[in-house]
Amino acid sequence: MPGTERPSVASRALGAGAWTVGTRLGTKAIDLVLLLCLARFLGPAEFGLVAMAMAAVLIIEALFDLPMAAALIRVPELTPDMLNTAFTLSLLRGLAVALLLLAVAWPLAAFNHEPRLVALLAVLALAPAMRGLVNPRMVEFARNFNFRPDAVMELSGKVVALVVSVCIAVGTQSYWAIAAATVSAPLVATLLSYVIAPLQPRLTLVHWSRFSDLLGWNFISQLFAALSWQIDRLILPRFTTATAFGQYTMGKQLAEIPLQVLMQPLVRPAMPALASAKDDARASRYLRLAHAITAVMAPVMGLAVLWPEVLVRVALGANWLPAAEWLRWISVMALCSLPGLLLSPLAMTLDRTRWLAMRTMIELLVRLPLVWLGAVHWGIAGAVAGSLVSTFFGTVAALFVVRRLIGAGVGAQLMTFFRPMAAMLPAAALLWFTEPALMAARGVPQLLALAVPIGLASGLAYAAALLLAWQIAGRPGGLEQHLVESIRNRFARRRTAGARVHAHTATAPDGAMEAHAKRPS
Prior knowledge:
Elements: H1 2-41, H2 44-63, H3 68-74, H4 80-111, H5 117-124, H6 126-131, H7 139-143, H8 148-172, H9 176-196, H10 209-235, H11 242-267, H12 270-275, H13 282-306, H14 308-315, H15 323-336, H16 343-349, H17 353-406, H18 410-439, H19 444-472, H20 479-507, H21 510-518
C-alpha cells in the first residue's frame, strides 16, 4: 500500500543506521584503545611522520575510488557478470593505487626532507590494495538493509589490528606500529568477506558500461574531495615542526572520530532509502534524513567544540593539550558541513554526480589558496582558518545543488540544521560554564567523576529542547516522531502483556489457583 511503504523503508533505514552506528562505535572504541596505547609509547613526531604518508595514501586512494556499492545498489537485479565486473575493476584499482604510491614515495620524501617516507609508503600501499579486493557480493546484504556481516568484518579486522599494533609498539616503540594497524585491518576484513559470502570471481569487464558514467564523474569528485580534506597535511609539514604537526594531526584525528563513528554509518543507509523513494517523495525523504543525521551529530560535535581540553586530557593525557585547540576548530568545520552532508548519496542515486564534482571543485578552488597563504603567514592557525572559510563556501554550493536536483528549498534545508542547533543552546551553556571546574580537577578519575554526570545532564537538556522544538514546529515527520512512536508502542505492548497476565490469573479456576498457591517456592 502506498501509505505504508514510506514508514517501512524509513524504519528499515533507521534500523540499518543503528546497526552501522553500533558497528562503527565498536570499531572506533577499538581504535580509541589503540590510540591511547600508541600515545603512551610513541610521540607526536612519530604520529606526524605517519600522517605525512597517510595524506598521500588517502588522496591517491580517493583518486581511484570506485563506488561499486553505489552502482550495484542501483541495478534492479544482480548477476554474476556484474559482480565479476565489479571485482575486476576493484582489482585494477588496487594495483593502480599501489603502483602510484610507490611512484610518489621518493618525491614526497624529498619534498618533506624525510627519507623514511619511502619505505613507509611502500608498506602503506598494501592497505588500499586490500580494501579494493573486498568481495563485491557483500552488496547483497546492503541492498536488504542488512549490515550485520559488515559488522563482523570490520570488528574482526580492528581486533587483529589492535593486537598486532600494540605488540609492535611495546617491542619497538616505532612508527611501524601505526603502519601495521593500517595494513592488517583491511587484510582481515577482505579475507572474511569471502568466508561470509562465498564467491569465486573471474576477470571480466562485460558490464563496464553500467559503471562508466558513475565512475567518470566520481573520479573527479573524489579527487577534489580528497585534496580538500588532505591538503593541510600535505602543506603544513613544510611550514611547521614535526612535533607541532603531530599535535595538529592528533587533534584532527580526534575530530574525525565522530564523523567515522556516527556520520558515515548514518549516511550509508541513505542511498538505498533515497533510491527507493518516488520522485515526488524524494525531497521530503531527503529533508527527514538530513534532519535525523544533524540531530544525532549536533550534540556529539558540540561536545568536541565546547570541551576539547577535557576530551584531550581524558583520552591522551596532559602532554597532548596543545591538540585541543585544533580539535575545537576542526569540529566547528565539521558542523558547518552538515547541511550539505547528503548531497553525495543523492547525486549518486540520481546519477548526477557531475553536480557533486562541481560542488567539490568550488570548495577546493577556495581552500587551496587560502590554506597555502594561511600556512605561509600564520602556520597551523592560518591553514585552519582557510579550511573553515572554504567549508562554508562548499556548504552553500551544496545547498543550491540539492535545490536544483530535487527542488528542496535552501530555507527548508537550513531548517534541518537550525532546529538541532537551537536545541543545543541549553546544553552548550551547561558545557561552557562547567569546563573551568573540570579542568581544575587533579586527576583523570576526578575529572571523569565530574564530567560524566554533567555530560549526561547536557544530553538530557538537548533531548528535551529537541522535543520542544519539534512540538513548536508542528510535530513534523522524522526522527522525533519515530522515536516517540517507538516508545509509545513499547509501553503499549508492556501494558497489553501485563493486562493479559492479570486477566489469565483472575479467570483461572479456583482449584488451579489453590494448587499454584500450595506449590513450594
